[in-house]
User: What shape does this take?
Amino acid sequence: MSNNMIAPQKQMTGMFGNPVAENPIDQMFDEVYKHYGLNWQFWKMNINSSDEIPEAIAGAKVMGFAGFCITVPYKIDVIETLDGFDDDVRVIGAANYVTFEQGKMIGHNNDGKGVVKAIQKVTNIAGKRAVMLGAGGAGRAMAVEIARAGVSHLTIVTRRKSQGLEVANMVQRATGVPTEWVSWTGNIALPKGTQILLNATHLGALPEKESVPINWDTLSADATVVDVITNPRITPFLEKARDKGCSVVDGVDMLVQLAMQIFEAWTGIIPDELVFQRAVEKALGE
Assistant: This one.
């Protein structure tokens, strides 16, 4: 390069959350950017508390980010700092990524859409009875999209009654699908006839790899078991499910499905799924 040539500025994207260290999203996106010849980079940023979110978001805007993701536990808190949001965020009450449109920060939520696409690669959703463990930012989106995909009944299991009832009522109001809340105490006994079981908690993530306290004897071997955790790819929860004979859907495939949509929203490029799959496998050392 000659001395009078200036390299194009690197376009920044990223993710705000806590914790973020074990998430392979940055390595995956950077590999995809490289594949498509984009001078872009993805940064993971650990934010200590919700009080710091407004400053962090303002910083991204000032520094000219092309967009950013939001992960736990800030998917709900971030909404009040944005300039606007789409209908999915309005219904779900949480955002997982942001685009910049004419200088305004617009929130979106495709957590649930990524989950649905990943599940539908393994089994049909319509007409089945589903149970979801947890109801945080990701869980809210998952519950709505699972209901939109046609489950016949949804049970939400949480330790906090107020959270569980609020999400159950929100889902039923938004979709009309019968949705109930069940208290999570001890090893949860799953409702009879459960066909899809989803873990929307962070139990099982590195480094602790905690077990999900459920009574596996209450789940049929023909059920499909789903986990949002991305690292490790096969959590103790999914190991138990596979040992029982259940089909499983891991968090990495969900990440790929939703990341593809986010990549397109930020760059305008429709990506090849194989590029994303290879990128995440490289990030995980598979």
About this structure: The radius of gyration is 19 Å. The domain at 11-109+253-283 is CATH 3.40.50.10860 (Rossmann fold). The mean pLDDT is 94. The chain has two domains: 11-109+253-283, 112-249.
